[in-house]
Design brief:
Layout lengths: L6 H13 L11 E8 L6 H20 L7 E8 L4 H13 L4 E3 L4 H14 L2 E4 L6 H4 L6 E3 L4 H15 L4 E6 L5 H15 L3 E7 L8 H9 L4 E5 L2 H13 L5 E4 L6 H7 L7 E5 L6 H14 L7 H18 L4 H10 L2 E3 L2 E3 L12 E7 L2 E4 L2
């Protein structure tokens, strides 16, 4: 079955599905409690707030059409500031509040810290952005799914672009020592070594939140790097890029989806020009992505931010699984998620046995005239 939550299609699909005989939802409450967890304040809020708006847009439409089998969806929102030590409290609060599915978390480190709590409670968690390979490849979290490709695909994409498209062989790989940036950088280093096409002239971690990164920029210069590949988030990347330009290094900067967004451009200013960053694969030709963007503009008078499409998709597929299975039990939801290919803003997706969405990948973007655009 293909399910969409846009316009008249939703009304028709909802009426048909409600008419079908199906088991009652495995919940006693009057509402289906839908959790949203991520950074809703602080430096990394630009990555978390778009997921909130995406979920609200989808859920408001479903509720307006009568909910799911007569039950309205209730949003429970918790802020984890993308910090592992806070995300455990966030998860505990949501579980204690009776949440039945969770959209989030956003940052890989925060997600990894929270997952054991959800696992013990048997709650489905779906992230639009947490790319750590550990979340799906380790087998530790059978209740975790995501609507973004893993780092196992992102690291090679960064290196292949630097070597094959930019023609740079001497690579400085820098990371923020975190659960997201460090494994991403390690994967990049491994890919260089496996392909044998380039040379890692510097591999080093930095301290997040440091006031100045002149020392690492000097090391990049001394190493003779032709390109910097960075694993981490936009606050640190913006400082590094600005110092590189100030010192006139004249080398390219290639980063990840933690740097891809307006927040980086606002911080780095003119220094953002020419910076490359991977991101979820380009959805500009997807009619559902265009429709979702229009909905956001109408509701919030602005363009959606990073991971909006993935969050919208995650909300759609989770609600479809609840509707189709007539349950909020993890095993029932997993069967639908793995079997049903659902039309979403990120494409028609279902999930493999590990929890990764089938067929997703990465595109490369570059900042031109103060805006990230797809590199053709």
């Amino acid at each position: 079955m293909k399910f969409t939550v846009s316009g008249k299609i939703l009304s028709t699909a909802a009426c048909v599905m409600l008419a079908l005989s199906a088991p009652a939802l495995g919940v006693a409450a009057d509402t289906i409690k839908f959790g949203i967890a991520g950074p809703h304040s602080g430096d990394l809020a630009p990555y978390g707030l778009p997921s909130v708006s995406a979920a609200k847009l989808v859920i408001d439409k479903v509720n307006a059409n009568g909910g799911i089998k007569g039950k309205k969806i209730e949003i429970l929102q918790e802020d984890d500031v993308c910090k592992p030590e806070i995300s455990t409290n966030t998860a505990t609060k949501l579980v204690s509040s009776g949440v039945q599915v969770v959209l989030g978390h956003i940052c890989s480190g925060a997600t990894i810290a929270a997952m054991p709590i959800y696992k013990d409670a048997g709650i489905l968690v779906m992230s639009p952005s947490a790319t750590s390979d550990e979340l799906t490849s380790s087998g530790k979290y059978p209740n975790f799914f995501r609507t973004i490709a893993p780092n196992a695909l992102q690291s090679p994409a960064m290196i292949d672009f630097a070597i094959n498209k930019l023609g740079k062989k001497k690579i400085a790989i820098i990371h923020d020592k975190g659960d997201y940036g460090k494994p991403l950088a390690e994967g990049a280093k491994l890919h260089v070594e496996k392909t044998g096409k380039g040379q890692v002239v510097l591999f080093e971690g930095i301290t997040p939140g440091a006031p100045d990164y002149s020392a690492i920029v000097q090391k990049i210069k001394e190493a003779g790097a032709e390109v910097v590949v960075f694993g981490g988030y936009h606050p640190e990347a913006s400082k590094i890029v600005s110092i590189m330009n100030k010192k006139r290094l004249g080398i390219k900067f290639v980063s990840d989806d933690g740097v891809n967004g307006d927040a980086f451009i606002k911080l780095a200013g003119e220094d953002a020009e020419g910076v490359y960053a991977t991101g979820p694969q380009d959805t500009s030709a997807n009619p559902l992505a265009l429709k979702a963007k229009e909905e956001h503009k109408k509701a919030y008078n602005s363009d959606p931010g990073m991971f909006f499409d993935g969050a919208y998709a995650a909300t759609v597929v989770m609600l479809n699984a609840i509707e189709k299975s007539g349950s909020t039990k993890l095993e029932d939801l997993k069967k639908v998620l793995q079997a049903d290919k659902v039309d979403t803003p990120v494409g028609a997706i279902n999930f493999d046995a590990k929890g990764d969405a089938v067929g997703l990948g990465y595109s490369m973007y570059v900042v031109e005239k103060g805006k990230y655009i797809v590199v053709k």
